[in-house]
Amino acid sequence: MKFFYIFSLLLVATMFFSMDFNIQASFDPESLTITATLCTKNNIKSFLLLPNYASKDNPYLHALFEGASGSMDILSVTDGKGNEIDYTLETYPATLLGDETLRRDTMLLINEDVDKVIIHFKTHIKSEQLPEEGGYNDFILYRFGWYPLPIEDQKGLRIKPHRWQLSMQLPEGWEAVVGGEKKGSSSWKSCGNYLSCPIALVKRDSYEELSFPMGDLRVVVHFRRGFEGVASKLAAFAIQVLEHHIKKLGALRYSTIHIVQDPFPGLYGITADGLIAIGDGFFTSANLWVNGLLDPLTFYLVAHELSHLWFGVGTGVDFLRNNFMSESLADYVAHSTTLEIYGKDYYMNWKASDLFTSFIKSYFDIPTTVTQADQLMLLYAKMAGVKAAVADPVDAIPQNFSSAVYYQKGKRAFFSLEELLGREKLYSILSRYYRLYVGKNVTTREFVDFLEGYINPKVVNALFFERDNYDARIYFENGIVKIDNENMKVPLRVVIETPEGSRSFVTLDSTSLPYIPAMQVHLDPDMHSFDIERHNNHWPPLFKGGYSEEQSRYDAYLLSTHGIVGFSASGLDYTGEILFEKFPYYGIGLLNQSGYSSDDGRGYSYTGASLYLHPDLYRSLEMKYSKFEGIHLSMNLGIPEKLYIGDSSPILIARHNFSVEGRFLDTGNYYIQGLYSFNDTLKHGLYLEIEGLTGEINATPTYMGGFYGSWIPNVNSELIPSLNLLAVGEALGKRFFDPFYDVLSFEATSNALDPLMSKYPPTSYLLDFRVSLPYMIIMNRRISFLNLFNLGGIGISWELGSRIFDSGYVFDASMILSPIIYIIGDTPLQINLGFSFLMDAEGTSTLGIKGGISFGSSIYFNEKLGFSGMEKVIKWKNSGLQ
Description:
882 residues, 12 helices, disordered N terminus
């Protein structure tokens, strides 16, 4: 027994001295804490305490957008003999990490030279359901920083790769999924230098696992019960990708790759050493509406996340200063792998034999391929006014457009290198890069020097450091076909088609071609460059009757058709357009409005014209004309600004928006309406609209004005109230406004027969003031209904309001129920159903209902029942419209 005890001590000592970090931890799910001791002998003086980042209130952001905070308490710092060591908690110096108020107490500095440092700490997990660092009752994920992280460079976020050993005590019914090699029932170690010790804590009665051997490697999928089929599919995709990557890029250091189901909604993935978390949307919503519709996107996501095990995690980066070496590389490898294995990069499974498939694609306007989706992102970034280089640090790019730069533009930079070198040669270079830097951090300069060993430095500069938007073009001049590469050394493939055949070449420079009758010339046909404007990439220009898989709307001028069918109590109507379009900038063409009016008992059909202009994301002009509705004109203008909210970079948005709309039917029926809106909810919880309208309705002059305001107090509470005021009026006293615009009678078949509402005719002014108090109940596990949608929880809002108008005032109290529903693609669908009690000063009362449906998410789950375009109250004569 004594021999065994001595042998155990020697074994532990040997393991400790071979590791940079030795961590002994225990997890308490009741308090959502991890208490641990970290030992290190490597004379590390600075540690990053990531849980303390933004643990205090953000002064630049409204409380509505701030989640629960985590934190890390340093309980003691001692040497190997139990003596306390002098240390301080400092503000992390990297301004790239965000505002100084968010970086306080995020760095632990050791102020003495000692052989061994022992840090006793407690990490508080956020008491909020989040993709990571937050707490579900059966799942908690921490990829980075649940323990003090060694920092290599304090100018950015450059974690020092380190070797670690972990022992963790877990309560009954819990187990740990750790991105390292398991050495015992509750101990793990890294296989070399890792960026972190990632852990996922799961409940055994909620999670199961499937394990698949793959030579010296094993893929283990951890999933919530009931998703065995999805887990098997993910494993099959992972094995396909790993076999491809290992063959092309080299072997991994890991013995096991863990893939875990993250219960947070969404289609996403996040990766650390040996551990990948996949968003719940790929499980719970995977087969909604159409079985297998998300399969291509699922494969792509798995390929992207696994690629990080080579680039971004396997080879470390500074996530603030050279994130492109992580995301751009991983996305290029994922995309090229998809093309290599499947031959096509469909965004979704458009060949699924289901009637819903074509409806989904057209109704939601989803790109056909990942390539087209990338082009759309690049185009929107350009239309937003974003100019950024692939190698820019995070503070040089608006954060809401950073993915367009690091993912789409960066990926295209590597696809351009593929055009120049060939895929096999480029993969060979990337494989050498991985073998050289695996387990190490790489600076931008080191990466560039490595590439320039194989590639012309001018090409590297054009692809990674040029900030201007790239626009190659082709045109015909003086009998010569000219190709303009904008004096940038971007590899550009040129395809020439003639009656005798076709050929292609790659050029770095502008060039000219002699004209051959019936020739066609195409630039970058596979969308491998980050060329923004592609309509000028073809000579002669491309014209298509709609767009197909072979030719996208980003390349071809279109002759397209659009149609909308409408149903109402007064009949059926159809508006159809045939447009000549240059997507997304302009379209011009003919329209037809036809239908049947039950009020008149007659059908109608009118022909007219339609025009739209969208030069950028902030300006638009639309105009329609028909005898049915006359001339309808609308213009919108947003004022873009960079809004600082304390993070690494500002967001680029338009808080101030102006719009003008007008209609002219005849000299007795016309109006022009102006609207100004100010959306400052992010910073101060304030939203304002001011609107005015002037014109004639049925030959009667009309002057209307309106105001809507909403304010949410900046308080940290699960119950955050909102104050809302609607005020509308007509200057000449005309009664245009319905005092019960948002309520339907529950006691009668119509508002006109309701005991309360029938007492009050339309009014010339309306003041509607209400106070709302919402509360949200989030389910720990979403429930699917008949494969149509998922229920993720329910919002409940209590409202008290008062309506003041010409003939009196009415008090109301409402309860609004808002199920949190997700449909195909994990798209949130907002459905509101409200019940109202209304009573006037005379004691007459009634019950009413409210309702509404909209796509997407908003700051409040209950629909804003505010001001909504005064043209809706106008009754045009001879139009059949109400």
